[in-house]
UniProtKB/TrEMBL annotation:
Annotated PANTHER family: CATION/H + ANTIPORTER (PTHR32468), CATION_H(+) ANTIPORTER 19 (PTHR32468:SF81)
Compartments where found: Membrane
Name of this protein: CATION/H + ANTIPORTER
Superkingdom, natural source: Eukaryota
Membrane topology: Multi-pass membrane protein
Domain Cation/H(+) antiporter C-terminal: residue ranges: 562-719
A UniProt-annotated Pfam family: Na_H_Exchanger
Keyword Repeat: no
Annotated family: Belongs to the monovalent cation:proton antiporter 2 (CPA2) transporter (TC 2.A.37) family. CHX (TC 2.A.37.4) subfamily.
GO biological process terms, semicolon-separated: potassium ion transport; proton transmembrane transport; regulation of pH
Major localization listed first in the record, in broad terms: membrane
Classification via Gene3D superfamilies: 1.20.1530.20, 3.40.50.12370
Domain Cation/H(+) antiporter central: start-end pairs: 417-556
Amino acid sequence: MATNTSNVTAALPKPMKATSNGAFQHENPLDFALPLLILQICLVVAFTRALAFLLKPLRQPRVIAEIIGGILLGPSAFGRSEKFLHTVFPPRSMTVLDTVANIGLLFFLFLVGLELDLRSIRRTGKKSLAIAGAGITLPFLLGIGTSFVLRSTISKGSAHAPFLVFMGVSLSITAFPVLARILAELKLLTTDVGRIAMSAAAVNDVVAWILLALAIALSGSNTSPLISLWVLLCGAGFLVFSIYVIKPLLELMARRSPEGEPVKEIYICITLLLVLASAFVTDTIGIHALFGAFVVGILVPKDGPFPGVLIEKIEDLVAGLFLPLYFASSGLKTNVATISGAQSWGLLVLVIATACFGKIIGTMCISLPEREHLTRTVLSKRKDLDTELRLLACFHSSRNIPTTINLVECSRGTRKRGRLCVYAMHLMELSERSSAISMVHKARKNGLPFWNKKRDDRDQMVIAFEAYQQLSSVTIRPMTAISALSTIYEDICTSAHQKRAAMILLPFHKHQRVDGSLESLGQSLREVNQRVLRHSPCSVGILIDRGFGGTTQVSSSDVSYKIAVPFFGGRDDMEALAYGMRMAEHPGIMLTVLKVVPPSGKTLMTLEGQDTSMIKVENDKNSDSEADSELFFSEFIQHAAKKLQDSVSHEERLVESKADIISALKSMSKSNLFLVGRMPPVAPLLISTDTPELGPVGSFLASSDFSGTTSVLVIQHYNPNANLHPLVEEEENEDTDDGTDTPVLVDKY
């Protein structure tokens, strides 16, 4: 008997020690668990990130790259070399790798539950529940049918009931985080379609985990039906205990984490211990440990800073390092080369076709009537918008808000017919972090964000706009765009098109430092503005903020600004002047218009000291004839004389050189705000500039050669030839016009 035991022991692989004494002690670090695990993590993360970069043009989520990377590192590709496989992924290291990978997956499922707000499911109504039911039922039934084929061919002898449930769940489950990432990249996250899809996926996730727990309970080696019954009863008891004991504890910690104060470290520690303890309990019961972590994530209150801090603490480590290991460990067990012969390929095609057919057909049968309803709603709510001016004001952070609100206050005018509606759009970068998708739980059915009654720090920006709305006659409608900065211009332009905005207001990509100079916030923000200028369906204004109104919102009674409009001619200058005329109707605004005229026989493009070789072709495209500019300016004089004589002054100044133009502009440098056309018919005023998108005059006004206290709004007239391709059809809950051209400010006078 002793001899048999010795033989068995000798046959087992020698356990790995944790750390080595180093190469200088003639020890190979890859023979020890810790250095080998470090190498495996580095290899897996670097390889999957490289694949994610290559797949980025195809808009594939990172999880796809991690799955493909795991398969390629396994025996399907690189692992076909036994030297590579036994050196980097030896069999005796797989226990450690699988353990670390499952720890990562455990906390990832906790994050999934943390981002899953059950209240969003209740808000979606019966339609989402019906779509979720259809998306589960048909694939589940088809999965059961497929299981009979598999059991009769390649899975002979497997337990009948657990195999049926496993196949049904595997073909019907929807990966909630993956779906959220895909919807965000397709610009559908905050639309009505995205809301329904996310809610249906949330229901699907909950039901799938319940079915998975059932399958695990039925798959025990003991075939006694009492064992399965005990597993189910204990699982139900765990849920009851979680709801009545764990949930109140989590709510208590969330209540004791108020706004503006850091969450106590002990609360984070207790929560993570609850995750591990719940995972241990469900594993002991016979249900997978992941189920316990998922349940705790669902029970965490979604209001306040508590869930956000939990995500920040563990998300990067889990999603960045540990989670890719799970897919790699799965890929190491997958050998695509074993799929050979007609039967194997036929079964593979059967499983893929069944999964796709069940999901697509089951969901479409329910959702097609919904799409028809959405379209018919949209078409019935359109009327003329001549009595309302709509602005789409974009902001990246809280530093943009005071100036934006002060600019809106100056724009509201006093005309009885001139109602002002402002869509305040918060531009949020969609990063690689999965928590960027959590904003989906705040999306109303009309695409606007849903702000909880108990607001967290991120809502303070919207609170400022809502507070301003209470004190003025301006209608404020908050919006949120969540996209990569490389494509967020599509959200801006599409929203402006759908909301029938007359102008998009964008913050400049530079902000003012304490010493008065402008510091860049990044090339990506500059490219956002450039793309909006090219594709916008309406006029665009880029605001160079040098403290317009100070760092706080100015009340209506305290508004006292001097606004200057240099007029050179052309469509952009006409638009800037029209905007200034609306501002002049505010009792606290004094508007000064300076018309710059060249000597007889010359034009502003050919004055002395100007380099005509630097003149952009875009000037010709965006400029109207001199006669049109003269006609518009004469209409402005008549309008100012009749209705704005106390708040508007204007003069004409003869200029003979570039130096005269610069002198004329500096003569108005005491103004609080300049309104200037982006591409007037004038040569550049600077020899070189890093902001050519602001045009010849705007780039000078934004430079250090000009005033350090005067803000500038560079305006581009609506370009009817803009390349706009709306990506989403969003249901609007307010009236829109009946299809007339997008209103521009010039047309209002």
